[in-house]
Write a structure and sequence with these properties.
This protein is of the alpha/beta class and 252 residues long. The protein is built from eight helices and seven strands. InterPro entries: CHP02452, Macro_dom-like, PARG_cat_microbial.
Amino acid sequence: MKLLSQSSNIRIPSTFDVHIPSVVDDARRTPHTPCNIYVVNQTTSQLLEQYSVEYGNSIGIMNMANSITPGGGYLESCSAQEEELCRASPVLYASLEQHARHGGYPFQWSEHIKVTPNVKFHRSDRTRQFAFYRTPLECTVISCAGPDLRNRQQLISYLHHPQQVYKDINRVVQTVLTVRPQIKVMILGALGCGAFAPPHSLSTQYRIEVAKQFASAINTSKHQHSVICLGIYCRPEQTDNFDIFKRVILPR
């Protein structure tokens, strides 16, 4: 990252914190209507490419972030959503790392989200072998985290107060959806699976409840945007999380 920081040709966007209120008030926002809601089996980068054609840089990306380490396992070759975004946009990692050096990490997942406007993406993700774009794509990245239920203390807290955890997840998603009302397209990612998932015995019910909180937050805030698209990329043999979120958010 020293090369990026010292280069006069590459601008590193600033990341700033936004406090998550106890009650998210979106009544003062100017609505975009109507809102189309989708749940799709695509990566965040694929959706950014798709919506950039029509909406340009009026796009927000929900980065499911690591609340301890900027970029998560980016430097260790991990391949979850945040790490893939950092590979597609090195300035995103540079911005988060710079933010960390100013005290931005670690952060409490239920108290803050992070906003990084004007992030340029120079290439796609591994689904397209990180192919470079002729022209960079630009959007706002909104980084948020969820509970780490591998952590014993957080798991015990969840087991004793599950409804509070679900309420906090709802507040996080609502804040992500309302923090930048000028954005026309919001691309969301899913909680409840992956590295921070609960033990297998709790996994299915937890994901159902998390999906319900996403559905509630989307329904409350849907008129803020023209499109809300939840992208959950999965292999054909591992569609459980995608199936749960689609069934809950878009019931037939």
